[in-house]
Amino acid sequence: MRIRTVAPVAAVAAVAALALAGCVDNSTPSSSSTSSASDVKKDDALAKQLPQSIKDSGKIVVGMDNTYPPNEFKDDNQQPVGWEVDLANAIAAKLGVKTSFAIAKFDNIIPSITGGKDDYGMSSFTDTTEREQQVDFVNYYSAGILWAAQKGKNIDPDNACGLKVAVQSTTYEDTDEVPAKSKKCTDAGKPAIQALRYDTQDDATNAVVLGKADALSADSPVTLYAISKADGKLEAAGKTFDEAPYGLPVKKGSELGPLLQKTVQALIDDGTYKKILDKWGVADGAVDKAEINAASKG
Prior knowledge:
Layout: H1 12-16, E1 22-25, H2 31-37, H3 44-47, H4 52-57, E2 59-64, E3 73-74, E4 80-81, H5 83-95, E5 98-103, H6 106-114, E6 120-121, E7 135-150, E8 164-168, H7 172-187, E9 194-198, H8 201-209, E10 215-219, H9 220-228, E11 234-251, H10 256-269, H11 272-280, E12 291-292, H12 294-297
Protein name: ABC transporter substrate-binding protein
Domain Solute-binding protein family 3/N-terminal: 59-284
Signal peptide: 1-21
């Protein structure tokens, strides 16, 4: 998980301090999200399969932590933007409803889904077998992990024992990737990797820019975006590795899961999906087929 497209990196910490909570009704979306949803035609056959509660409300509630550019972040009006925002709006348009983004901390989204508060999540969730014990995932993208460091530092992710690595709290990089690397270090009698955990990707990026951390670890599209916005101060450390599927978390066994799978597949088939990814420069992770719980299918 996851400054602003117009903010210099040095100002990121101040921006990240503006925490949001609650719902953002996207009935009147920003121009960037309107362009991707306005061309999507409603599929009546799919719309008929919506749960009655969503039909009655005319909106689908999507849990999101909008602090992970370019996937999902805030525009100048504090509204959610990004390629996943565009995709969520396209899904809603295909189903003939509006999107209501429930903005929350990343680690609160799955509990909101299992508790019935949110219909599904769209927040760069890596589908893992552990998370599949709580929710089902509708897979829609493939992302790897990519490290970044200050330019000229020559950091090697496979030889990072004793380094300080910035991560966003509760992301896969925080819970799985960096701890696994650190354990290899300590098992070999070397110093552990010190994970510096931040609430937002903005803060994690800023820690590297300011020299508080030796490197950052994040999903590949997020790291590349951070590098592009760092005024030449950051560079990729090594290459992308450990590619894994992103998934939309839905309540386990929910009728909404198969419907979202069909809807995402329809957007892939009609070209909307590729148009959105191309617009944001993240098409390298495109998939041809929307699946359910790809991690456990291995």
